[in-house]
Amino acid sequence: MHAKSVDAGQGAGWFKCGWDLFKQDYGTWLIMFLVFIGLSIALSLIPVIGSMILMIISPALLAGFMYAASEMDNGNGINIGSLFQGFKDRERRNKLLALGAIYLLAQVLIMAVMVALVGGNTEMMEGETSQIDAEAMMTSGMGFSVLLVFLVGAIIMLGFVYATPLVMLDNMSPVESIKASYSAGFKNILSLLVFGVIYLLLAIVAAIPLGLGFLILIPVSILALYCSYKSIFH
Length: 234
Prior knowledge:
single chain; about 230 residues; mainly alpha; 11 helices; globular
């Protein structure tokens, strides 16, 4: 799979595409999302191991959304069971779980970087003043450390943006899908930035009615991710 470079304006078009898919069967999309949230909450209640399991199976669950989006895009119907399509296909299931394991390792790496760069500065400042002062944080270099952690995390996560749809819809291996995701990300950094800015603006609006707007925004954003995958890889 070779990633194409698209215009920055496509970042806005992906949301329109996602909305068009969502409104075709908003009831099923909402139920699928609520089931996903329910599973996430249930696993998060299990100390330590629950969060680890959730990270490992998250690509398989996201793959269900990608599969359903592809089916709807091709004129086929979807149902709640589509959410678990990533588990039903044995070959893809193993690849998606392997991708989830790599994702878990990536999160551990990000946490390790955070502790190494930020943890020491925080302990030093707390030891000196018993509380963290924002100005002192910046002058001590902690602000730079936080920015560096953010950049490192963003670069690591760029490899997972398109990994799941590439595994689910193109049957790629986990490692190759991550490589292709990096290629797509670097070629389309501007369109992804536009996508991110639009999401942040919509998130502000979604948060106003007690956060209920996220029940629509997040599923639409997932479908918009599918649309971006389609425009970049197909």
